[in-house]
Amino acid sequence: MAITVPNVALNSMDYQRSLDDIARRKLVIFDFDGTLADTMPGITQTAHKVFTEIGMTEEEMGDIRRIVGPPFPFAFEIVYGMNRAQAEAVTKRYREIYAVEGTWPLFRGVHTLLSDLKQAGKLVAIASSKQQPLVMRGVADNHLEDILDACVGRIDEAESTKVQAIATVMNKLQVDPKDAVMVGDRMYDIDAARPNDIPCVGVLYGETTVKQELIDHEAAAIVDSVQELHRVLLGT
């Protein structure tokens, strides 16, 4: 399938100009869950265990994948209508289980993509809503330490942490917004990139959202595969 640039005609001059602008940027900031790592199974299975423990029915749980994207405990509030105390209690139990049973395998082709970005002289970083210790475990387990130039996870429960994480990465690496691009799988990544004045490439290969969500939130480009993402970020 063709790479999508929302509201721009395929193969037009504006289409190619938009892709060229992304490819020239020297800092690529990645979300972790659903973008680099296929964490959906581990997240949903852990949440299912917690929901079962507190007596929720399968009907009440619905599509648990909806919690992937927004930070915890906020995700449980907006998806399931929990009050803050309930959401915090669920989050606490979730983290107890996930710390032991969580998995974070990279999507096929991601390690090669990151290596190719580094070889091309790009700076590569992670900005995640996942707690910092868990992100660092994911980085270590996937042997990414020597590839990443920065990795910033969540250090508190503030709902704006993703915005701050992106800003922290750019400040740490001393990169201007005009030279940076975000890559993520949900509207939350696009919305966090916007206050930092950087575009966000949306990815669909993790099956965490639908294309229209990324279009509605004005992703700079949308890709269906890691191979397409490679083309967008490197221009090849």
Automatic annotation (TrEMBL):
Residue ranges of coiled coil: none
GO cellular component, one term: cytosol
InterPro entries attached to this UniProt entry: HAD-like_hydrolase_sf (IPR050155), HAD-like_sf (IPR036412), HAD_2 (IPR041492), HAD_sf (IPR023214), PGP-like_dom2 (IPR023198)
Keyword Hydrolase: yes
Pfam families membership: HAD_2
GO terms for MF: hydrolase activity; protein tyrosine kinase activity
Keywords for this protein: Hydrolase
Superkingdom assignment: Bacteria
Keyword Nucleotide-binding attributed: no
The protein's name: HAD hydrolase, family IA, variant 3
Species assigned in the record: Lancefieldella rimae (strain ATCC 49626 / DSM 7090 / CCUG 31168 / NBRC 15546 / VPI D140H-11A) (Atopobium rimae)
